[in-house]
Amino acid sequence: MDYKVRTRLSRILVDDAVEANADITILGWVRTVRVSKSVAFVQINDGSCMGSIQAVVGDPENWPVLQGLLAGASVRVKGKLVPSQGKGQKYELAVDSLEMIGEADATYPLQPKRHTLEFMREVAHLRPRTNTFGAVYRTKSKLAYAVHRFFQEHGFYYIHTPLISTSDCEGAGDLFRVTSLDLDNLPRLEDGKIDWNADFFASEAFLAVSGQLEGELLATALGDIYTFGPTFRAENSNTSRHASEFWMIEPEMAWAELSDNMDLAEEFLKYLFRFALEECADDMAFFNKWIAKDYDLCKMLESVVESKFKRITYTEAIDILNKSGQKFEYPTKWGEDLATEHERYLTEKKFKKPVIVTDYPESFKPFYMRTNDDGKTVAAMDVLVPGVGEIIGGSQREERLDVLNARIKKKGMTDMDNYYWYLDIRKYGSVPHSGFGLGFERAVMYVTGMTNIRDVLTFPRVPRWAKF
Ligand code: 4AD
Ligand code: MG
User: Which ligand neighbours the alpha carbon of 250 most closely?
Assistant: First the structure.
């Protein structure tokens, strides 16, 4: 069989690159079959785009293949692309031949009716064949391409950082352990503690929560770098925006202060949003109509691209929250971290657009953030967006060796021998530098209007769920 002769539906329906009356071959999966006495309609989607094509068979009795043809089957259809009389479609396919390649029976879970997103998570192995998930994964692919394009166009080098790590960048302790020790027979030291020296790497090892520390090493050599890779967090938080395995984009710039970092974050996000609007028009129109039901998603993204993000300091944010007259579950107090409800108030109610909050108290921010002149706050930034909350976290890094050492001591980090390499770049030719991490799935949520991170990952890993 010569599969190469197939015409992708995207060539017909998106690119408009196929002439009417062309003889073509379509390979795809059946969405619906409707057979009447005089005519049969078989709707076929091949995944290359949102649109399906209607294959029309003139005299159904003479087509035994139609007997066993059900939703979910894969088919090869040859025919003529003809202008359609039906509403809402430019073309249909006047069928010359129709073969079933792989049958599907009535147990196929994605029968043509509305399914809940919860149900679709149970059939995550098949949900890519639905309109919603096809659109999500296509948009995600385009956005991943846009990430690389943005940074490559801006002179950043793409680097890989280790996924197996012996450090805890964020200091939050949400680490998945990597070990090859026999858990039923652990080697122990005299004091009863586990002898990690006997483990595979002769040390404790974990899946990386961030590539930032290594990213800093590369930025202070190549100038501007970015990572784009998987990240693992054993946070036991069962929310709609936390996953145990997600992808993060981490740019790091030498010779850059917090304001440069904010500028980069804003320009980068706008580039991604514009890219989705321009390059995924069909899928975005679908999200607008069926997913973001109570607001105009495309208009919202367009206005975000056109306007400036709001920038406020943490201290200003606390002030706004205190004066808001809102009743929060967690009261706001200078020195306490912002809770989700506070972030949502700022970005959804107060400013109604993306907000960058800067200069948080040092007490709840990681050791690497640069101490401000007030001695109480650090040059941190979080980007908050309506509906999703925090999508970016970043900072200017502490480049002064003595200040960094003091902060490490204050944080009570006892294993700093492990981090001598991190300190070395402050010892040899230290430079001001800054960077941030964008949670890729959270960006995809914002762009598509999907409200649960489980529905923008292909196969989500969350507490108590690592199926497929
Ligand atoms: O704010 P975070 O923890 O920052 C860092 O990891 C820094 N090392 C980044 C840097 O400066 N290079 O994480 C960055 C972003 C968050 O803003 C959020 O979008 C996403 O990563 N994120 C998660 N996304 C999904 N599931 C989780 N459990 C996430 N944790 C963080
Ligand atoms: Mg954060």
Answer: 1
